[in-house]
Amino acid sequence: MGKRENAENSFGIAVDIGTTTVVAAKIAPDGTQTASTACLNSGARFGSDVMSRIRAASEGRADELQKLLQSDITGLIVQLVSEEEGAPRSIVLAGNTTMLHLLRGYDCSCLGRSPYTPVSIAAEEHTAEEMFPGISAPLARTRTILLPGISAFVGADIVSGLFATDCMRKSAGRTILFIDLGTNGEMALISGDRITVCSTAAGPVFEGAGIRDGMRGGPGAIERVVLVPVAGGMSGSEKAAPAQARCRVIGGEMPAGICGSGVLEAVSELARLRLIDRDGLLEEPWFSEGFPLAKREDDTDIRLYQEDIRAVQLAKAAIRAGMQTLLTSQGLARDAADEVLVAGAFGGALTFSRLGPLGMFPEELLSMAVAVGNTSLRGAAKVAAACLSDQDGQVLAELDRICSAAAELRLAGRQDFEALYLNALTF
Description:
The protein is α/β, with parallel strands linked by helices. The protein is 35% helix and 22% strand.
């Protein structure tokens, strides 16, 4: 037992509960992630977005959704913990408001109808056994912390991200735009001690989900795409693509699919070469057959299909319209920000300079955009590390300060948002 006693409580677990993907990491006392693992959110069988999950829960599937989420998270935690190490000091959970309601077994119907009042968005503490019934004995008594949220549609994942990036301290005399490129498209405008937040439905495309040949960012996923015109410009009637794709694959392996960053770059490249028109339409035969990108090990094609382009089109329009509405609502120009932080669990850091033809960001904001990774997980990791050094009280107080400083901007029904959204659909 000596080795286990020495190791016990010397690490924490951080979990980011996304609508599409659930990610967990083992956290060392200095806050570094020493191991991580992930899985698809099993609740996606009920639909890709939060509204479909809310609807399913309200129609009698709440218990099933809760158990699926508990099982997903328990499985990830167990993968990260060995008997030799003992139990973690704490398990820290971040996620959007719907996911945390489902996990807690709260009534989700309030999230699907006006005035969209959550049952609870406060920080909570429980034991792992209370959160995950049936979890193994070494973990059962582990302190489990749910981070606080801001509203029904701007949850603990965004609070965690703002905490991870230290936005409030960095915004003294400056304006910071924080954007989470996830299924719910949350964003925040931070200026001094004032935070304005909003959420716009973007869908799961940024995580490679909902794409016919899509996959999570991991070994075998195409994360970079460059299209090189074919000399002579072969015509569509010859059924030969007028450009050849050069792809970079995570891990240097044979490609198995394409992740979020690869999808965005591929669509941006098609727009750059005008292989899609202003409305995002491919010519035949690629409209019907998809545009070829690479071949798998079994010689089958990985292609970008017309419905994939449509999914990107809807997502990029939602993000652009959301950020511009957020800025103008505060009396700022549509491209006025001193720094743009873009969070999201992509296969690789986005190369924003290559996304100009996509039109997701105004040129002025595109030039200052910085990819900051999965900040929801990073924020949860900072809390887990604080628990290891007994500084969790200070950290939780800082999270509450972020929540108190935030005011929500509702985009639904705003004519300015709708006009910007329609305009942003074109390439």
